[in-house]
Amino acid sequence: MTNRRAVIAGGGIGGLASALALAQSGWEVEVLEQAPELREVGAGIQVSPNGMKMLERLGVLPHLEHSLFEPEAIELRMGRTGRRVFRLPMKGYAQDRWGHRFIQIHRADLHDALAQALRAQPRAQLRTNAKITGYVRERGGASVYLERGERVFGDVVIGADGVRSVIRNQMCGTDRARFTGQVAWRTVVPVDALGDNAPPPYGVIWAGRGKHAVTTRVKGGSHVNFVGIVEQDSWTEEGWSIPGSIEEALADFGDWQPCLRAVLEASQGLFRWALYGRPPLATWCDGPVTLLGDAAHPMLPSMAQGAVMALEDAVVLAQMLERHADKVAALQAYEAARKPRTTRVQQRSAMNARMFHRPNAAAQLATYGPMALAGHLSASVIHRQQDWIYGFDAGS
Length: 396
Ligand SMILES: Cc1cc2nc3c(=O)[nH]c(=O)nc-3n(C[C@H](O)[C@H](O)[C@H](O)COP(=O)(O)OP(=O)(O)OC[C@H]3O[C@@H](n4cnc5c(N)ncnc54)[C@H](O)[C@@H]3O)c2cc1C
Known about the structure:
Blueprint: E1 5-9, H1 13-24, E2 28-32, E3 44-47, H2 49-57, H3 61-64, E4 73-78, E5 84-89, H4 93-98, E6 103-106, H5 107-119, E7 124-127, E8 132-138, E9 141-146, E10 151-154, E11 156-159, H6 166-172, E12 178-190, E13 203-208, E14 211-218, E15 223-231, E16 241-244, H7 246-253, H8 258-266, E17 270-277, E18 285-286, E19 289-291, H9 306-323, H10 327-356, H11 361-377, H12 379-385, H13 387-390
Parallel strand pairs: 1-2, 1-11, 2-7, 4-13, 11-19
Antiparallel strand pairs: 3-6, 4-5, 8-9, 9-10, 12-15, 12-17, 13-14, 14-15, 16-17, 18-19
Bound molecules: flavin-adenine dinucleotide.
């Protein structure tokens, strides 16, 4: 087969998923990852039904069954008082309404499953210690440059190199990712370490002034995943994933519900993670080069859709390259298909963050009062608001 070689910058969830989707449709793929080994950070991730449909298409669900957790429900509660605003039933309901399950999983388990499926593809190559510094368009495709001076050619090049993408910076100018004013705490703790103080065994968003937290279950339900998002004026540290102390985390969440305090106190490793973003891009394509996942559309995590959007991108990109003989036209069709949806999700994620962080009691009442009433009258009012996102099948 000729002219079907893709070079993929970045071996995160988006890079691996796109490599897998392309390899499955007959492409030779090479993933170039800067890190010395392929791995994901120690944190949980939620995969909504629209993402599960993509994982099913990619054939990775059998590798995940042992490690996923299907929560009974997702709740919105007040962080200090624990008062419930609404409960969204999920188990059983998600499958019936949106066509697949809603699950929680450790990122490393999802990443490993994608890598395992990719390694089973005879025409796929995964290279670590391969930092890309830029690309050049050339006849029939484009080449990326590696730090060590090597040049790697692809008929298409996919920039799946995350929110600080070098491919995007070259394509769109040096308008770098910006600090969003929010920092995420994260830790994973065994349920057994929490005694009677474990957070509920379903997903809970804990809302409060200028911050919110999310507790989920990962590793088949045996571990609690905690993410706490806090507004902060600036971020001056060198890395994006910085070890933090229990005392610092308790300064943010210590006066919230005892189960949250218990998670932080039992933590054997707390990290802070600055959240970066950027406004929607004017274009994602430069001839045979395109962007995917956070490189194309970074978003705040308050809709839990960043990785899910990358999975959708991966499936649509492979489909467009299958449908269009002209690769440049295929990449443009991919961008046209994806941009309206990812832009809407980016905007909605920023809106959700503001909604979870209402600054005072009056604003909280004005926001959560009608939600509580709607949820009390019928969960389907809240469910309906998720239809456009969870009910979507990007591969159909
Ligand atoms: C606190 C938090 C919670 C979240 N929760 C959820 C959730 O519940 N559900 C969900 O769907 N999403 C969630 N997200 C979003 C999700 O994590 C991201 O959207 C997703 O990881 C993006 O994947 P990606 O592959 O596009 O980018 P990344 O995961 O950033 O991967 C990029 C890869 O490219 C590599 N790379 C970078 N530069 C280079 C280079 N120059 N050369 C070679 N390699 C390079 C990096 O090392 C990395 O491996 C959350 C995010 C945060 C911060």
